[in-house]
Design a protein that fits this description.
Blueprint: H1 3-6, H2 22-49, H3 61-81, H4 89-103, H5 109-124, H6 128-137, H7 144-160, H8 168-200, H9 215-218, H10 230-246, H11 251-272, E1 284-288, H12 294-307, E2 316-319, H13 321-324, H14 332-343, E3 346-350, H15 364-379, E4 384-390, H16 392-401, H17 403-408, E5 411-415, H18 420-433, H19 440-455, H20 464-482, H21 490-494
Parallel strand pairs: 1-4, 1-5, 2-3, 3-4
Length: about 500
């Protein structure tokens, strides 16, 4: 994506004088490595869980993400460097450190300023949204955007602080970068809200279908993939069970899953000994409020089923009403079949599934999606597991409305809301992953804040999302608090004080 910078750098081994404090150098190296690791991990998650989201060759997605990582770092460097265009030795050293990380190439200090000025025009063409696009648009890595925003602002602050002072022009750039990151996060939240609203809104009266997929294409299946070895399945199963046990809270859900796993293991043993084994439906309903971990558990269950040899690949295809129901009459069936085809040999997770059924029963498109889904569940019963998720009462109403649904979904997992202590633990985990400390005074304020939210909660209570929102807000408050402090120590960069926590 940014090969243009590679051509402008001359390979050399000379180094600039070490004028940057060792602490800032260490923090910057660590942040650069964390940035690259985040992009690589995100590429793996998307490729493994939702390869259908990747446009083009999935095998090249990692290269794209690494390029985005490089472009992001160059964008940060150039924006701050251009704020005053005053290249003192400390700024030169930081610039060479970043460019060496990006390209594994060293350049002479005498050539550095000229090289960066030449690439500055190109850097301006790298738009912030384009650099953050996968995290805005790809659901499997939505939750990584907070981690990335932390890294972006940390790198930007370290570059600005390289020479020991932050000029007013650099302050302006830091605020602009923060605004761009906030804009990306807001767009992501709005996108999720639109998807949710779309799922809750019944389709209007359809027009005549302009095309109908033939029955053969509706019944088409994915190309078979190579069977996993017994050891590969065992490794996947063990990893999934470990992830399940490490989840915060959700005790009743963990208990239900462990009982199901024990049952499936015994059934497999009976089959090995030639004993009769009843047909078991693995289709499941997840009842719970938003942010209670339903999507995460669905992904874990897919890995568990794959590890037990029940499904072949174990991928999770996540969708909702908007992914199943079309705009015009006659298109819903083919659209639902497409989602099922993507999920074959894995799990189809349908969030807010109750929106497919209205209380009045007048939603022809939703009914068509359900009928298509039920047929495919029967036709592909050995290759498909369906999980329906949503609020408890609407999900119960949905099952009562259709005998076909209630007969096929006889297992329900109930996801409880998180307690204040559990929300606090979720917050701790985010801090640990992003290298933040939470002193005891801050812990007490956090607990009180979570408890206040719980006491006031309604049907829109966010659970885990509340913890994430408060974390995002807190690190922004911390950034504003320390932006003018000098020197910028590791302790300052990593400690959340009570005043950083917004009162409920």
């Amino acid at each position: 994506m940014i090969d243009w910078i590679k051509n402008l750098l001359e390979q050399a081994e000379s180094k600039s004088p070490e004028t940057v404090s060792p602490q800032i150098t260490l923090l910057l190296r660590e942040s650069l490595e964390n940035c690259e690791k985040l992009f690589r991990t995100s590429a793996f998650i998307v490729k493994q869980e939702c390869p259908h989201l990747i446009k083009g060759d999935p095998n090249k997605f990692l290269d794209l993400m690494v390029d985005l990582h490089r472009g992001l770092l160059v964008k940060i460097l150039v924006e701050i460097a251009e704020s005053d265009r005053n290249w003192n030795p400390a700024e030169c050293e930081v610039a060479m450190l970043i460019l060496h990380h990006v390209w594994s190439v060293r350049i002479d200090q005498a050539d550095l300023a000229l090289a960066l000025r030449r690439v500055s025009d190109r850097a301006e063409k790298l738009k912030w949204r384009s650099l953050l696009k996968p995290y805005i648009e790809m659901p499997p890595i939505h939750d990584k955007l907070t981690d990335l925003s932390t890294i972006i602002m940390r790198v930007a602050n370290l570059v600005a602080k390289a020479d020991g002072t932050v000029e007013s022009c650099e302050h302006a750039v830091l605020r602009r970068i923060q605004a761009e990151v906030d804009k990306a996060m807001n767009e992501q939240h709005q996108r999720q809200q639109r998807q949710s609203n779309s799922a809750k809104t019944n389709s209007s009266i359809g027009k005549q279908a302009i095309a109908t997929a033939d029955s053969e294409s509706q019944q088409s299946a994915l190309v078979a993939v190579a069977e996993l070895t017994e050891q590969e399945r065992k490794t996947r199963f063990d990893r999934a069970m470990q992830e399940l046990n490490q989840l915060i809270g959700l005790s009743p859900v963990k208990k239900d899953i462990c009982e199901l796993v024990d049952f499936l293991k015994i059934q497999s043993a009976r089959q090995t000994h030639g004993l009769a084994t009843p047909q078991v439906s693995l289709h499941t309903v997840f009842e719970g409020n938003p942010g209670t971990g339903k999507t995460t558990v669905a992904r874990i269950m897919a890995d568990i089923f794959c590890g037990l040899g029940i499904i072949n690949t174990g991928q999770t295809v996540e969708t909702d009403r908007s992914g199943l129901v079309a705009q015009y009459a006659g298109q819903t069936g083919p659209k639902t079949n497409e989602r099922v085809d993507e999920a074959l040999d894995g799990v189809l997770f349908i969030d807010e599934a109750y929106t497919l059924v209205t209380e009045q029963g007048e939603d022809a498109y939703g009914v068509e999606a359900i009928q298509t889904l039920l047929k495919r569940m029967e036709d592909d019963r050995d290759r498909l597991v369906v999980i329906l998720a949503g609020y408890p009462q609407p999900m119960e109403r949905m099952l009562r409305s259709n005998p076909g649904l209630s007969s096929r979904f006889q297992r329900t997992f109930k996801f409880p809301d998180y307690s204040a202590n559990e929300l606090l633990q979720i917050f701790y985990n985010m801090c640990k992953r992003n290298h933040y400390r939470v002193p005891k005074e801050t812990q007490r304020k956090l607990h009180a804040t979570f408890q206040t939210h719980i006491d006031r909660k309604d049907e829109h209570f966010g659970n885990g999302r509340l913890a994430r929102n408060i974390f995002e807000e807190s690190i922004r408050h911390m950034a504003s608090r320390i932006i003018s402090v000098s020197p910028l120590t590791r302790e300052l960069l990593s400690t959340l004080e009570p005043e950083d926590i917004a009162t409920a």
